Amino acid sequence: MSKYDVAVIGSGPGGYVAAIRCAQLGMKTAIIEKYSTLGGTCLNVGCIPSKALLDSSHHYHDAVKHFEEHGIEIPGEVKVNLEKMMERKSSVVSQTCDGVKFLMDKNKIDVFEGVGSFKDKTHINIEKNDGETETIEAAKTIIATGSKPANLPFIELDKERVITSTEALKLKEIPKHMVVIGGGVIGLELGQVYRRLGAEVTVVEFLDRIIPTMDAALSKELQKVLKKQGVKFHTSTKVKSVERKGDEIIIKADDKKDKEIEIKADYCLVSVGRKPFTDGLNADGAGVKVDDKGRIEVNEHLQTNVDNIYAIGDVVKGAMLAHKAEEEGSFVAEIISGQKPHIDYNLIPGVVYTWPEVASVGKTEEQLKEDGVKYKEGKFPMRALGRSRASGDTDGFVKILADEKTDEVLGVHMIGARTADLIAEAVVAMEYRASAEDIARMSHAHPTYAEAVKEAALAATDNRALHV
Ligand code: FAD
Ligand code: NAI
């Protein structure tokens, strides 16, 4: 029987990063993945394919809607070749997954293909696809089994027309009308992909605003911009039934006035969140506790109730984000090797990769109000930037919230071109506990979108923005 210092179950961004870091720290490491490709949800059916389709559909949208204003004329009609677009997405995915396999080999990590299940706290059975079972011994185990799409109890997902993100990433035709249930990250990113490709898109959201966990000003601006792009919204609307009749889907819901509405569509994307995944793991076999939400219970060291078993990523509490899972992967490897690492969960940024992009870190205005913290706000509109006018990306703003007395930056919320990248500056600043004035006094290259961060910081510091 093969013996390891550490076995990692699941090869998503949490699992494969944990395995690399364990190997770097000199531990003999194995990784177990039930699918034939490594990379988990993020690489196979999440972050990477969704971004590939967002980028492709963005090019098409620009060609149809914006080239002309730039003085670019295309003789004839611009057309979408969906099959080719999907093929490109698949090749981006396979290159990225192959990259993880390369990293496993480079770091001398043994890869086992099969379902990992606990025999006891130091032995894991690996049930392979050919029916064979192999058992390995591991002094420590890291559970990184991720998550799966959640559903509403009354919806039958046929995975053909009533679908989750996994199917929406590989449709064979452009929907005529796609109803998106849930105005969160997945619904808006994939909704925008199909809207750009020509589908009518209607978003039905239970709460009174889209992206409800982000700062309310971002929800308002994003909804305004998406509406301009033709996406329809029903907020404060409760879906009651989703029925398929042939190729038609009939969605019934109660709107904000409690009036029943009926929407007909040819596709319905259900994007109401994700749930932790532990099927087949036999957590019980090792005595590992799972909480009432199906998450593996962990302490502040991400250690389960069983002392040699840890858990990270989507399968434990906290934001279901690839970079959160990665941070936890490194963290746990370092804890196991006796180091004292640290993660500041308040400084894990959140990003929505629509265009304009939405990005956020730290406290929202709503949270500061709820916590009774006195704060000041500095806001700067993207349209006032030379760079935004040059590219034509004038929607959005940067908003900085700073402590009223100390000027420490408490939250940064932005929507606009490339804010997914701009948010890194805010994370660095907040990690070093910068004041708004610290950011305001740093030189930002001109002309860039990043100037909006400096201007918002100036606005937060005695209302000193220069270009509004
Ligand atoms: P996962 O990536 O889910 O990996 C878990 C792996 O474990 C899977 O490969 C699974 O097959 C394997 N596994 C499970 N049980 C077993 C077992 N018993 N034995 C062996 N293997 C097992 N996050 C971002 O930060 N940015 C984004 O842009 C982004 N976009 C997304 C888009 C979509 C459409 C979706 C669905 C998600 C997106 N996410 C994004 C979220 C991100 O994918 C997850 O947060 C991330 O993948 C979690 O990583 P993980 O390692 O915890 O688990
Ligand atoms: P989400 O939690 O982002 O959004 C779900 C939305 O559905 C919420 O707005 C919620 O209020 C709404 N909702 C819940 N029940 C509903 C109901 N009965 N009727 C109507 N609306 C309802 O979840 P989503 O979009 O499914 O994504 C799952 C996870 O994947 C998220 O936690 C996210 O972190 C991650 N992800 C991250 C991305 C990124 O970082 N860019 C991209 C895609 C996914």
From TrEMBL:
Q: Which reaction does it catalyse?
A: N(6)-[(R)-dihydrolipoyl]-L-lysyl-[protein] + NAD(+) = N(6)-[(R)-lipoyl]-L-lysyl-[protein] + NADH + H(+)
Q: Which residues bind NAD(+)?
A: 182-189, 205, 273
GO cellular component term, pick one: cytoplasm
**UniProt KW Phosphoprotein keyword:** no
Matches recorded under PROSITE patterns: PYRIDINE_REDOX_1
- Which EC numbers does the record give? 1.8.1.4
Keyword Disulfide bond on entry: yes
Q: Name one GO molecular function term.
A: flavin adenine dinucleotide binding
GO BP, sorted A to Z:
2-oxoglutarate metabolic process
Note the SS bond partners.
Answer: 42-47
Q: Which Gene3D superfamilies match?
A: 3.30.390.30, FAD/NAD(P)-binding domain
Pfam families membership: Pyr_redox_2 (PF07992), Pyr_redox_dim (PF02852)
Q: How is the cofactor bound?
A: Binds 1 FAD per subunit.
Which ranges form a coiled coil? none
Indicate the segments forming the Pyridine nucleotide-disulphide oxidoreductase dimerisation domain, all copies.
348-457
Q: Which cofactor does it need?
A: FAD
Q: What InterPro entries does the annotation carry? A: Class-I_Pyr_Nuc-Dis_Oxidored, FAD/NAD-bd_sf, FAD/NAD-binding_dom, FAD/NAD-linked_Rdtase_dimer_sf, Lipoamide_DH, Pyr_nuc-diS_OxRdtase, Pyr_nucl-diS_OxRdtase_dimer, Pyr_OxRdtase_I_AS
Active-site residues annotated for this sequence: 446
PANTHER family, per this entry? DIHYDROLIPOYL DEHYDROGENASE, MITOCHONDRIAL, DISULFIDE OXIDOREDUCTASE
Give the note: The active site is a redox-active disulfide bond.
Family, per the entry?
Belongs to the class-I pyridine nucleotide-disulfide oxidoreductase family.
Protein name per its UniProtKB record: Dihydrolipoyl dehydrogenase
The organism's lineage? Answer: Bacteria, Pseudomonadati, Bacteroidota, Flavobacteriia, Flavobacteriales
